[in-house]
């Protein structure tokens, strides 16, 4: 186990919002404050116990040294170490690993990782996801080729996967249907009405072959994760969660000849399982980054649940329910719970920890002991994902 002296002892999240009225707005700082409070409360620790803080770089404009401003605003005093994460959907796992390294090195004893974003702003229609392009990367190298936003880029990826392996929309629809079932059991999920395969297939086309129910819905929200030393964890009335393995991979493949249907999760997953000393058959629940069902299907392949190219038949022929054979995104995932901007990876992380702490209520995976959480940041041209992270977590002993 890579971090024997580190335990995850708490997670938290705010209510999510899609305000259509300025009166319903919550500032980025307010979301961070609420997320910090609920996360500390989940572990029974006071503000004063926190000596390390990390935050994500949100998709909306923030000042330089935002983490410093935030530490002061939230009332944390004499913090010994601060950090940020700027890898999009992999931000949550990045903060977990940074915090674990800091605790393991003796720099801090208790680390609070926070993520919040406000992509939905009724007072500023130009604000929102992926709004910043100060260096012209998107304007110069992506827009001219017609890849105007993630929907069109992932439509290319899904079309290639279908061409190479015969993957169909009917197969991928099982991901959306299963996750919506989980969302009906999650009071925090944005969508709580069930859907069936016909509804998925009849959804409004967005960027062929991607339809409306393939796409996440942007929401405003805040999240937190709390790590501490094993010694302090033993003093708390919580079930500690241990980091059994991890792996990361950036810019997977050769950009001159990219493997469009393989993600960096293939590399990161191998490393995570190697460090954990286990294989996919030892995992009880899977919280896979799900900005689109095709990304879920490719991760299923890359993590070794099925051979490459069989992701479509696998998700169509496997019970993905919380009480099924391969419990998948048991909170509803981002497809149904919502995507909170650059804090999106926290959707998977928070649910993964809750499952192992046996606090997932009516969607609890029976006897969940080990789980996999993935994060994926950035949709590059000609590749599915830019930065991929895999975390293997397991239930520890309360002693």
TrEMBL record:
It comes from the Archaea. Residues 254-380 form the Thiolase C-terminal domain. GO terms for biological process: isoprenoid biosynthetic process. GO terms for molecular function: acyltransferase activity. It is an enzyme of class 2 (transferase). This is Thiolase family protein. Signal peptide: none annotated. Its EC number is 2.3.1.-. Keywords: Acyltransferase, Isoprene biosynthesis, Transferase. It comes from Halovivax cerinus. It holds the Pfam family Thiolase_C_1. InterPro entries: Thiolase, Thiolase-like, Thiolase_C_2.
């Amino acid at each position: 186990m890579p971090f024997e002296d580190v335990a995850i002892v708490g997670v938290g999240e705010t209510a999510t919002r899609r305000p259509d009225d300025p009166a319903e707005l919550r500032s980025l700082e307010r979301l961070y404050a609420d997320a910090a409070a609920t996360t500390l409360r989940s572990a029974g620790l006071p503000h004063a116990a926190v000596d390390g803080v990390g935050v994500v770089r949100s998709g909306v404009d923030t000042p330089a040294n935002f983490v410093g401003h935030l530490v002061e605003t939230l009332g944390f005093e004499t913090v010994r170490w601060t950090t940020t994460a700027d890898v999009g959907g992999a931000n949550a796992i990045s903060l977990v690993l940074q915090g674990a390294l800091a605790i393991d090195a003796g720099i801090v004893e208790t680390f609070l990782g926070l993520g919040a974003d406000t992509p939905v702003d009724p007072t500023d229609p130009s604000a929102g996801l992926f709004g910043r392009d100060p260096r012209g990367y998107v304007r110069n190298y992506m827009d001219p080729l017609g890849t105007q936003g993630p929907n069109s880029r992932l439509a290319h990826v899904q079309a290639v996967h279908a061409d190479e392996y015969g993957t169909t929309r009917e197969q991928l629809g099982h991901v959306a249907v299963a996750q919506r079932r989980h969302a009906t059991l999650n009071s925090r999920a944005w969508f709580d009405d069930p859907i069936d395969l016909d509804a998925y297939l009849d959804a409004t086309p967005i960027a062929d072959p991607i339809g409306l129910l393939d796409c996440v819905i942007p929401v405003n929200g805040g999240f937190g994760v709390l790590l501490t030393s094993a010694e302090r964890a033993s003093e708390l009335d919580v079930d500690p969660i241990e980091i059994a393995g991890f792996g990361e991979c950036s810019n997977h493949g050769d950009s001159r000849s990219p493997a469009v249907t393989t993600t960096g999760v293939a590399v990161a997953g191998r490393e995570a399982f190697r460090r954990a000393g286990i294989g996919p058959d030892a995992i009880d629940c899977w919280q896979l980054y799900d900005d689109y069902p095709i990304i879920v299907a490719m991760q299923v392949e890359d993590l070794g649940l099925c051979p490459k190219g069989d992701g479509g038949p696998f998700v169509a022929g496997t019970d993905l329910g919380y009480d099924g054979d391969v419990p998948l995104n048991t909170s509803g995932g981002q497809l149904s719970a919502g995507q909170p901007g650059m804090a999106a990876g926290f959707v998977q992380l928070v649910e993964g920890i809750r499952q192992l702490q046996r606090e997932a209520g009516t969607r609890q995976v029976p006897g969940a002991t080990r789980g996999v959480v993935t994060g994926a940041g950035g949709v590059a041209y000609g590749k599915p994902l830019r930065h991929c992270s895999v975390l293997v977590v397991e239930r520890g002993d309360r002693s």
